[in-house]
Fold this protein.
Amino acid sequence: MPPRMRAVREMAFLSFLVRRLLLGIVVIWVVTVGTFLLFFVAPQDPAAKLAGKSPSPGEIAAINRRLGLDQPLLTQYWHYLDRLLHFNLGTSFLTGSSVNTILKQDLPPTLSLMVGGAVIWFIVGVAAGILSATRARSLVDRVCTTGVLIGITFPTFVVGLLLIAFVYAKLNEAGLHWVQVNYEGPSQSIVGWAGHMILPWITVAAVSAATYTRLIRGSLLDTLGEDYIRTARAKGLSERRILYRHAIRSALTPVVSQLGIDIGTLAGGAVVVESVFGLGGIGQASLNAIQSGDTPIVLGVVLCASLFIVLANIIVDILYSLLDPRVKLS
Amino acid sequence: MSLTEVGLQADVASDLPAGPIEGRSPWLLAWRRLRKDKMAVASLIVIIVLAVLALMAPLVASWVGHPVDMPYTNSGLNSFGDPVAPSGKFLLGTDQLGRDLFVRILYGARVSLLVGIVTTAIGTAAGLVVGMAAGYFGGVIDTVLARFIDSVLAFPYVVLALALAVVFGPSLPVTIGVISFFAWAAIARVVRGQTLSIKQKEYIEAARSLGAGPLRIMFVDIAPNLVAPLLVLATLFIPTAIVFEATLSYLGVGIQPPTASWGNLLSGAQNTYNVAWWDLVFPCVFLLITTLAFNLLGDGVRDALDPRTERLFASRRRRARRRARHGGRDAAAHAGGA
């Protein structure tokens, strides 16, 4: 590439990055406003929950004053934004501990779950997708397609429940105690940690791997039907070269754009899997916080998760333009 | 002219209809392709049977003689107070309160199908309008709407769905509202993309030069091109919505007991699965069959509407047939030589 063109590309990339980061901040701001309104306008009364049985109006007023809930909504939001700019997510209504600390504490189970699950689904999904597309309507394809259908059909919590009922319970009855539920950090033993995580990993991976197998199969089949693949065949290229050099690259573009959408699903799936297996990560913390009306924790979790999703989407867009140079970053 | 070409021409000639050639609309062709797809037809039949069973749930309950919310503390629970196994009296056994599981599952089917269809209808309509508006008008409207779509998709939706359900009080309408709220965004994103490419076409320019207004162009010229992808998206969203409802109900923020839904049946089964496998397995089976049927039907509809994949398979079939014929002739030549 001539140096001038490269300079132009680099400028385009930088301006794309700046624009997307700014837009990402706008998206996150919209999310905070939405969540904030939802929880502070909603007919919930955290003070009444905190004050215990039959509180006097004075007690409730005192709690509201302590939590800053007696101020006008705009002032409350202003304080919230001010704290946010100092990377302070506030303090829990119920326990008074800092939300930053709570999130930091609950991060390891969630991270273990998402990273391990993502590795499994990516490997399984891509391999099965390519296999079943290149051998369309063969036995391998039928096995993969059936597996995909089962994976897509089984909701996350059903996979988890069935695994607990028929794998965890049976194995432990049989005297095999490696496979466990609940969470145990990897600091004591990596093997023990993996034993606690293996069922949750499979659960998270099952649905996503199935979705991606199907997606890759579909888009690879579409690509293999294109005229330029026929041209490549007519040129006498080997099937392997056609597949890996010509087809997969363009077949992966719709997959990558789907990835951006699905990261949110993965984060949501974490809530369900954490509750089914009692892992106690960020997802479960948010579920408990929602049910007990502990708004600062909910706001913190939603903010973290949307930050993660926005960043992941920017990375996905960059990947997209790397895969398909015709796509302009904008 | 080689033998292969003669064979091909013969193929083409034998494919021609005997009578006068009739015009076939793309929809008729798609319907014919769908009818040939055995899996899709089987799925359609399963869905119809399920829908009929769901509609007849009160009738079945009175038939069996077990009202949906009636706990049979004597005949429905054994001496330990555990659910009883499937038998002639309780077709699929009982749940932890001694209620007839079969009847409860059928009532659960009503909830699932209702939620699946209503949320998909709302989501598709809203997604179509928002996506078309964003794609067609472009500029500021597109930027705002596209960012809004992104914001909704960027929301960790299970968390938000839980929050909405708790804040507004879990119930059937709230569940439908929450699921619809997430249905439209993904559909709007696809519609926007399609609209962006369709509006570049010459016939849109022609319509505009004839003086058609934006509404007319959107709904008369663009929308018909979106029906096929929307139909596929909608069929495939129904099972997603059903699973979503089951998940919410399982987590305790969807349909509330004593109203039966597959999600809260499974949530109850969590306490009884080690003494009563049927409590866990049968609601799972129904949930899976339903979502499986909709997924397979969606696949069938997509294959039927997108002839390109069909063309690929057709060309493969033709190639395979030709190869088989070559092989046959070679074998015959060998036999003759010997």
Q: What stands out?
A: Chain A touches chain B through 54 residues (CB under 8 Å). Chain A has a mean pLDDT of 80. Residues 157 and 272 of chain A are 6 Å apart (CA to CA). The radius of gyration of chain A is 25 Å.
